Amino acid sequence: MNVTIEDSWKTTLSEEFKKDYFKQLSAEVKGSYLLNEPPIYPPASLVFNAFNLTPLDEVKVVILGQDPYHGIGQAHGLSFSVPDGVKIPPSLQNIYKEIKNDIGTEIPESGNLERWAKQGVLLLNATLTVPAGTAGGHQGLGWETFTDAVIKKISDKKEHVVFLLWGNFARSKSNLIDKKKHLVLEAPHPSPFSAHSGFFGCKHFSKTNTYLKNNNLSEIDW
Fold first, then answer.
1. Percent of the chain, pLDDT > 90?
2. Does the annotation mark 67 as catalytic?
3. CA quadruple 78, 84, 90, 94: dihedral, nearest 10
C-alpha cells in the first residue's frame, strides 16, 4: 500500500511502511474500507490527517488518544477533535474547561482542533481507524506498533517536545520517551468518569507553554 502522508513523515517512517506487520495492517484496513460493512472511521483520506497537518519538523506537543470516535461524522483523524458543526464530545468539553480554568481562554463553540495541529500539536490516536459503533474495534491489528514507532521517532529525532499523556493507556507509553530531552506530563483521562480524579487542576496547558517558552519555542495558543 502506498501511504499518502506528509513528506517528512514519509521519509522518517519509510522503513516502518516496509515491515510485514504494516503490510498486513494495510491490507486488513483497506479491505474493511472496501467492504464498508460496517463503515470505517475516519474517512480513508483522513486516516493520516494528524501527520499531514503537523509535519515532524513542526511537532512541539504530542497529545495521545486511544482510538477514533466511532459515531457518524465525528472522527477526522485528530485525537479528541471533531469537525466543525459536530457536538463537542464530553472529554473535549472537559479539556476546554481545564484550559479555561488554567489559562483563562474562553471555551470555543467548535470541537475542531485543527488550529492546534497547525501550531505543532500532534493529535495522535494510538489506533488510527475504528468500525462504526465499535469502540476499540481495530485495536490489535498493528496500529499500536506503528504509533509506538512514531512516538519513539519523535523522542529520538527531536528535543524539547511536550508529551501530554492522559489516562492509563496513554501513560503506559511514557517508557518510549527520553525524559532527559523532553517533558512528559501525566494525568487521569479527561472523560467524565475520571476528570475529577486529577485531570481538572493538572494545569498541563500553562506548564506546556512555560516549558516551550523556556526552551525558546513559541507557545501554543490554546
1. 98
2. yes
3. 80
